[in-house]
Amino acid sequence: MLVVEDDATVRDVVARYLGDAGHRVELAGDGPSGLEAAVRGEPDVVVLDLMLPGLSGLEVCRALRARRTNAAIVMLTALGEEDDRVLGLELGADDYVTKPFSPRELVLRVGSVLRRTAPVDGPDAPLVDGDLRVEPAARRAFLGAVELALTTREFDLLAFLLARPGRAFTRAELLAQVWGWDFGDHSTVTVHVRRLREKIEADPTQPRRIATIWGTGYRYDGAA
């Protein structure tokens, strides 16, 4: 696990709590060294501050996703940085924690991300819709012969909806049932639906698979 945070006090506190929870932690204090450590060490999770010297957290996130890394990314953001949080999610961050935060909350969020990314035991049947194929047990998704580069959240959302075609869900229900959040910004769901459409729809501006139910949320209709 890698923690990239320029505030030494916050960095040390986060590292101590994560270490006490059983995680092996590497530390970096700026964007360039954080990116280098993430590429070199291939951590399971990168805890990434948004405001970093050298390279911003957004730039580091963009660079990591361009390399198609499988690392989950949890961003640390300030309370007033809503636009940057949304942009972080659009760039491929899996979760975010708003400063000031409880270190225990961060440990719980990291644990939740790790559980979602862990391979699933058992013969989970693939989910298929035309040329779209999702393999829950392997946590892989394909469009035709091409494997899709999905973040943890995108994969969880797609698998959830594909397993329940024709049923409408509110954004609050998706937050709770897909990611286990009893609270949170509903725009998180909107961002991930938009990113999924860009990856699985022939024309994301006129989606056929994931339909918007105005005033409610979303429904998986399928490609046919």
UniProtKB/TrEMBL annotation:
InterPro entries associated with the record: CheY-like_superfamily, OmpR/PhoB-type_DNA-bd, Sig_transdc_resp-reg_C-effctor, Sig_transdc_resp-reg_receiver, WalR-like, WH-like_DNA-bd_sf
Annotated OmpR/PhoB-type domain ranges read: 124-222
- According to the entry, every stretch annotated as the Response regulatory domain falls at 1-114
One BP annotation, GO: regulation of DNA-templated transcription
Listed GO CC annotations: cytosol; protein-DNA complex
Gene3D superfamilies named in the record: 3.40.50.2300, 6.10.250.690, Winged helix-like DNA-binding domain superfamily/Winged helix DNA-binding domain (1.10.10.10)
Per UniProt, the keywords (alphabetical) are: DNA-binding, Phosphoprotein, Transcription, Transcription regulation, Two-component regulatory system
Q: What is this protein called?
A: DNA-binding response regulator
Identify the species of origin: Pseudonocardia hydrocarbonoxydans
